[in-house]
Amino acid sequence: MRYLYQSDKGKIRELNEDAVAIFSNEEAILAIVADGMGGHQAGDVASQLAIDELEKYWLAFEGTIAKDYFEKWLRETIIKVNNTVYQKSQSDIECKGMGTTVVAAICTKDYLIIGHIGDSRAYLMNQSEWQQVTEDHSLVGELVRTGQLSQEDAEVHPRRNVILKALGTELNLEPDMYVTSWNEYDRLLICSDGLSNKLTDQELHEVIVHTNNEKISQTLIDMANNRGGEDNISLAIIDQRDKVGDPTC
């Protein structure tokens, strides 16, 4: 497997509250995107703390790479990280009220395990199809799920950035989990809403499958910035076929 990842603060914000990282060993890759809660204190602290804590547990990981074991490990680890971020927000006055989204994916040559909280997304893609495999924990996401809002209207809704669930905002939050084999898909994209709010799913798919590999991440970031760039933009792509360019950060 090969991968790339990149983050950009966008054109408007002075601070990048996103964090993105990929950690790999001989058997698996852990890819993470975290988007610190905009408008809250220390969003950048929350997102980086989530990354750092996940890295710590990943480096200390001892166990089988069996799918069921890895799924249990990722779920329990995200809960631990959630509680660490929450405790930091409660003990440090400068971090009061902070939180972050998180989407974390364990990728092996055979299967994927994804855990997420918030509205950062994961997509699976091949040359002809794409599938969003996470559901946004957001106001408009809930309205879409309950049939009160169409997907098209959700994309332009004025309150589409209102998050209903974020890591670090209360104790023992559990992530949604998604487990699958690669099957007909060969690429995974995880990203913050600074990207998914600016490009349609079809545009994301077209760029990722048709752009020169080394230029994919910068092309996507440039497109988001050219359409306003009001938010931070972060993404990671893992390619099961070994055809993504060298890692970028």
UniProtKB/TrEMBL annotation:
Keyword Hydrolase: yes
GO molecular function, a single term: protein serine/threonine phosphatase activity
Catalytic activity: O-phospho-L-seryl-[protein] + H2O = L-seryl-[protein] + phosphate; O-phospho-L-threonyl-[protein] + H2O = L-threonyl-[protein] + phosphate
SMART domains for this protein: PP2C_SIG, PP2Cc
Pfam families noted in UniProt: PP2C_2 (PF13672)
Keywords: Hydrolase, Manganese, Metal-binding, Protein phosphatase
Protein name listed in UniProt: protein-serine/threonine phosphatase
